[in-house]
Design brief:
This protein is of the alpha/beta class and 260 residues long. The chain has two domains: 207 residues, NAD(P)-binding Rossmann-like Domain (Rossmann fold); 37 residues, no CATH class. Helices cover 48% and strands 15% of the residues. It has eight helices and seven strands, in the order E-H-E-H-E-H-E-H-E-H-E-H-H-H-E. A seven-stranded parallel sheet has the order 3-2-1-4-5-6-7, sandwiched between helices. Helix 4 runs parallel beside helix 5 and helix 6 crosses helix 7. The chain starts with 7 loop residues before the first strand and ends in a 7-residue tail after the last strand. Bound molecules: nicotinamide-adenine-dinucleotide.
């Protein structure tokens, strides 16, 4: 008997990086991951990889900022499996620019993917979770849910906001046995981070190596990147919570970059 036997888990942004690792790990522990992503080809490839290991998986095309697409994706999951037990709201992007010339369009785009995406996927899943009297919702926060960095105004704003959303859902969901928590990783080498290393080097006029050493890993206890596996451990811990005892919380996984 594994922790997630038969549990249906929608993981947004699961075609790549952290979300993909979460989907793989859920499947390895008996769960059925729904790989929901804007990039349907990559989502299908991830689902095939999981199936190749002998587990079930389902790829769904989903732009998390599009209410109709989110509703359709969740409806397809209900049609196929009859339930959704777990939501990992993970899809996200990064845009780095100084606040003084941050384009309004980029601000809105980033907030929409992180916050509208979390809201819309939560709302679409909740009615099914309430009906089943069971649900585990995990939001992908960041150390930037607790801490700020230059060049990341909308990202820091959105990641702080997810903690508020989780706390409200923890209160509203409790009577339906639905918990909500946030995982807050430090820097993880995924495409999202690889893209911003040269961008930050350009903005600050330093080398890429300096971005890694003097910005990203400067305050860690050991100069190490967090891994997708480390983050998946924390997500699965929250997703497996047996009761409302563990709800409305946020856990930082960052090699000690942020300590609370
Ligand atoms: P990634 O770029 O590897 O993966 C992000 C995935 O989200 C991609 O598959 C992309 O197609 C998908 N996506 C983007 N916009 C979408 C949309 N509108 N609808 C559906 N899917 C969409 O990035 P990652 O590093 O794995 O990031 C995943 C999450 O982890 C993000 O929320 C990010 O903010 C968070 N995070 C990352 C780090 C890090 O260092 N990498 C640290 C803390 C938090």
């Amino acid at each position: 008997m594994s922790r997630f036997d038969g549990r249906v888990a929608i993981v947004t942004g699961a075609a790549s990086g952290i979300g993909k690792e979460i989907a793989l790990r859920l499947a390895a522990e008996g769960g059925i991951p729904v790989v929901a992503d804007l990039n349907i080809d990559a989502a299908k490839a991830t689902a095939e990889e999981i199936k190749g290991k002998g587990s079930d998986a389902f790829a769904v095309a989903m732009n998390v900022t599009d209410e109709a697409a989110v509703e359709k994706g969740v409806a397809d999951v209900i049609a196929k499996y009859g339930k959704v037990d777990i939501l990992v709201s993970n899809a996200g992007i990064q845009i780095v620019k100084p606040l003084v010339d941050f384009p309004f369009e980029d601000w809105k785009k980033l907030l929409s993917i992180h916050l509208d995406g979390a809201f819309l996927t939560t709302k679409a899943c909740l009615k099914h979770m309430y009906a089943a009297n069971y649900g585990r919702v995990v939001y992908m926060g960041s150390v930037h849910s607790k801490e700020a960095s230059k060049l990341k105004a909308p990202y820091v704003t959105a990641k702080h906001g997810l903690i508020g959303l989780a706390k409200v859902l923890a209160k509203e969901g409790a009577e339906h046995n639905v918990t909500a928590n946030v995982v807050c990783p430090g820097f993880v080498r995924t495409p999202l981070v690889d893209k911003q290393i040269p961008e930050q080097a350009k903005e600050f006029g330093i080398t890429e190596e300096q971005v890694v050493k003097t910005i990203m890993l400067k305050d860690t206890v050991d100069g190490e990147f967090t891994t997708t596996d480390d983050v998946a451990d924390a997500v699965l811990y929250f997703a497996a919570a047996k009761t409302n005892a563990l709800t409305g919380q946020s856990m930082v996984v960052s090699h000690g970059w942020f300590m609370q």
